[in-house]
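Q: Two folds, back to back.
A: First:
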Amino acid sequence: MTAEAYGRFYDGVYRPLVSAFHGRLIDARTIQAEQREYAAERAEFIRPFMTNSARKTMLDIGGSTGVVAAHFAKEFGMRGTLIDPAPLEVEQAQRLGLDTITGLVEQHDFGTRRFDMVIICQTVDHLLDVAGTLARVRQLLSGDGLLFIDIVDFRAAYLRNWSVEAAIKIDHPFYLTERTMVAYLRSSGFDVLRSDYAADHLHVSYVCRPGHADVDVMPAVASVEEMLREVRFVQNAPHRM
């Protein structure tokens, strides 16, 4: 989809489609309890980097209802700004006292604004352009800024379900692994300070700082070939395995 079409997709189509896919109501209200648990867990992951920190401004890209951004802002004494393409979810975020932008980070003009922290929570898999967004984030971060980002590890998902199809999500244009995410980060000019597995054993989180861009970095060819063989094996193995 184009960026314009993607914006329309999130304005009224996305949540009903995902609700139908999962067979239960998933909307701007029902997701907030899960988001609160996630926010508390990930705040503890970030906390060592925020002790005695002078960071005051935060941008949450794809921040949904603002539950995570509001929790981080309260815990670490920051002013939070949220950008998300879904108007109903942005409306919920406004009620939490966040500055809000309805739209896509790929399109919005931030002017000269810079942020001490950027968070991309359970969102990178939804982006239209991972490399372009990370390059934009690199520009938006202040000199001592931090990036928090996490992925659904596609390999962990298909091994858990023993099926590639069962690991697919209807709203994910991208399927990332630990190796591909680190390559994206390094090629975009980020150094990984810490990585960690979330409690669900599917998400992998990263805290990063601006660094030197290694534009030629790629996952090793052997590791890619190994994964493709594994995918083929999973798809053809008996289901009882």
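A: Second:
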Amino acid sequence: MSRAGLAALCEEVVSCRRCPRLVEWREEVARVKRAAFAGEEYWGRPLPGFGDPEARVLILGLAPAAHGGNRTGRIFTGDRSGDWLFAALWRAGFANQPTSVSRDDGLKLTGCYVTAAVRCAPPANRPLPSERDNCQEYMLRELDLLTSLRVIVCLGGFAWEAALRALAAPRPRPRFGHGATAKLDRFTLVGSYHPSQQNTFTGKLTETMLDDVFELARNM
């Protein structure tokens, strides 16, 4: 059963210590903390995916933010990227509320599941290829357990490439772009610019553009 399998996988992910550089960094960030969150207890561990076990759409990000998911214990929770993502998921009907601030804030997802290519916060938000590869097994097991999945929305080029590698896409591989699509086995990949401040502050990604991606995913 996917629920039991996902629960077991979550426990395994949370206890993972495969990447020494990431273990050291995530724990240092949790110990030193950002001044604005000095009074909070940081999660400081890897992050499992979360959402609807019957999801037909998977949202694949890059990695947890040092003071977002690494602090709150839930992917895309407590940072500006998550503010954009969950507001868009709410507008698209995938989320019951437009905000995600903590693990116990009442957020529920319907028809979608959110995860990341790398499960620990990386220094400078740049995972090494070896760290990406160490996490690939977790993504593959999620894909197997989420038996209703049909669409993978890749937030950014890193997530797009991680999905192509995990699914053993043939060469020449489909190129990433906002709104790009690629059919691989039972999945259709949909590309989207990542909702990072670098993209949202500059206008490279707008709310309308993100909404269009999730409308495309839902229609598929």
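Q: And?
A: The chain has one domain: 2-219.
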